[in-house]
Input
Amino acid sequence: MPTLSLTKKIERLAALKREGAKIAALTAYDYPTARLLDESGVDLILVGDSLGMVVQGKPNTLSVTMEDMLYHTRLVAQSAQRALVIGDMPFMSYQASVEDAVRNAGRFLQVGAAAVKLEGGITVVDRVEAMTRFGIPVMGHLGMTPQSVNQSGGYTVKGKAQDEADTIVSDAKALETAGAFAVVLECMPTGLAIRITEALSIPTIGIGAGRGCDGQVLVLYDLLGLFDEFVPKFVKPYAHLKADALQALRRYKEEIECGKFPTDAESYH
Ligand code: KIV
Output
């Protein structure tokens, strides 16, 4: 596919939904991973605040800062030519005020992101409206929202109870009305994700939300089998890079110890 303008890339997501074609999204945090994803043809790269866990080794995403996010977003945005790059707004970069939200969202665009993502429904609708009014495309995030982990009872499936499900549907509609161009649905029953997907004209991108969403997203290191400290049920490891890397590293060490590396082939003469 030829390189499209940012507006066209966002419009293309809506077109994919209308055509019934699925959207593939993944997270990336640096130059090599952004290049890999771009080459693979995924539609959307999210510089997720999941980097707090998979890059920084923290127990959750709460300590991730704007500076962390801008650093990684810049690396990804300058490396990806094809996919739409979305910067994830970290905890407390948009919660305190609409003004904070717009200013911080704008900083993501200044380092090269095409759009931003934030968590929450009705509570962030005024932020989403203000950002879109100022030309900042926004993606929502509903269901299990990791930045609320201390309040929402942990990393559990959301929307099993009817009233909670109805609230999530209302939140999704409110985000669409406020101008969001897509919404991530995380950890919810398949039926609820289908209900939301059918109710919205903007695409839904699921993670642990079943096959009825318009697209899917996973954390790259989960998909590659590189991060095994906590593997949720919805993760499908398409590779086992941790095991492969360990094997390579152990072999490297052994070959140094027994004099097999380096050989003449790896030496200058
Ligand atoms: O931070 C992240 O990587 C995310 C996705 C998993 C949706 O929010």
